[in-house]
Amino acid sequence: xxxxxLAALLTVIATGGLLLYATSDLPDWGDPLSPANAGxxxxxxxxxxxxxxxVPNLVTAVLADYRGYDTMFETVVIFVxxxxxxxxxxxxxxxxxxxxxxxxxxxxxxxxxxxxxxxxVVPIIQIFALYVIAHGHYSPGGGFQGGVMLGxxxxxxxxxxxxxxxxxxxxxxxxxxxAGLGVLIYAGTGLLCxxxxxxxxxxxxxHKVLGxxxxxxxxxxxxxVEIGVAFTVMAIMFIIYAVLSSKGRMRGGL
Amino acid sequence: xxxxxxxxxxxxxxxxxxxxYRLIVxxxxxxxxxxxxVIGTKTAVLxxxxxxxxxxxxxxxxxxxxxxxxxxxxxxxAARYFHRVRQDREASSIKAPTTT
Amino acid sequence: xSFLINMISGALVLVGLTFFLAAAVGVIRFPDFYTRMHAAxxxxxxxxxxxxxxxxxFTAGNFSVDNLLIAVKIMAIxxxxxxxxxxxxxxxxxxxxxxxxKPFEKEKEDEIETEEKPTA
Lengths: 254, 100, 120
Known about the structure:
The structure holds three protein chains of three kinds.
Chain A: H1 2-23, H2 35-38, H3 40-53, H4 58-66, H5 68-89, H6 112-134, H7 143-161, H8 163-169, H9 172-195, H10 207-210, H11 214-245
Helix pairs in contact in A: 3-4, 4-5, 4-11, 5-9, 5-11, 6-7, 7-8, 7-11, 9-11
Chain B: H1 2-25, H2 29-53, H3 57-95
Helix pairs in contact in B: 1-2, 2-3
Chain C: H1 2-29, H2 33-60, H3 65-98, H4 106-119
Helix pairs in contact in C: 1-2, 2-3
């Protein structure tokens, strides 16, 4: 065991040293002349994104508009990850939430202090999460971050009031439905663009549906796809927690 | 004032090191969780200070709030998990003492 | 005016740092889990609130709508931490108590020392 540990330590040090040595070849932080910043694509993003989309936050514009395919399949990856965890650990048959807590299932008397704080804090978290989703055009944030926070608020309910209580608000079926709905909103936006005669996820044509100019349509549809992402991330976050913490039985919990 | 906040940030970081000591040495697991909780709270403050130094407070305040939220949920989950592991150990030792 | 605001903000931040120093010393020096928790919970919460208050005063000192909004947000973080930090301290303390961690007692410590000294 001891020589193995020593060998592992040496390997880690050698790998870390090589990585540190390799960083000397990387361009300086924020170097305007580095290939990533000075390429044609980056120049186009930096110079034209404001005119193309009206979104001040360049990251959101690149994430949800220019690289819409990438983000859509990231959402699908999250969706598939949740389904994978459910199909491996979850129970195939429908799980009825228990009306009465059962002592042997790990339910103990719930702590009043944490429950009261949770009641105060969960609405704050959810409002802040909605702010993060909606404000993604102007400040760091967006569907992924806001979705994680929404999911975390449900996890907080499950931690303080018990998993059955949280499942009453967000049952397994509802979570899977919301996760699918999120992907559907994203892909549906893209399909609507195709139906109106443009490429998949080319939002500009959506001004026929949303009103306003083509630029405004790109701005609005970015918010729509962010909401879709938030639905999926929220539901999958919670379902992963619920399945893992209860070993797939969907009762008891942490 | 920017320099002042730089030094405050360095001071905060320096004062986190003793707590890091408790995180590494801490005799019980729950000592370590407490240390992580304290460091997490102070990291939220540090994020705001970094925002002041970079003159981008409006942006960093959002990070700090999100970090504080997740830190709270994290430490609560750690406490519950600690409790649960203990319960499971007790339950298994009552049911089948020979297996352990 | 701006000098006064800077002084107030600096004083609040420094007092907050002092409290955090006390918390750090307590976390290192106190003998058992409960006392360490006491230092960590109280010192950490108060110092966080004071430092954030100082930064909020500094930010609001520039008097514009944006800055006032940011100051309100910083105060929101302070209020949030004021709510949650004691709660997580309480939950952790409960977990430790249920785990059966014995509180430190002075006399017992002395007995153990006197008992152990001859053997050691």
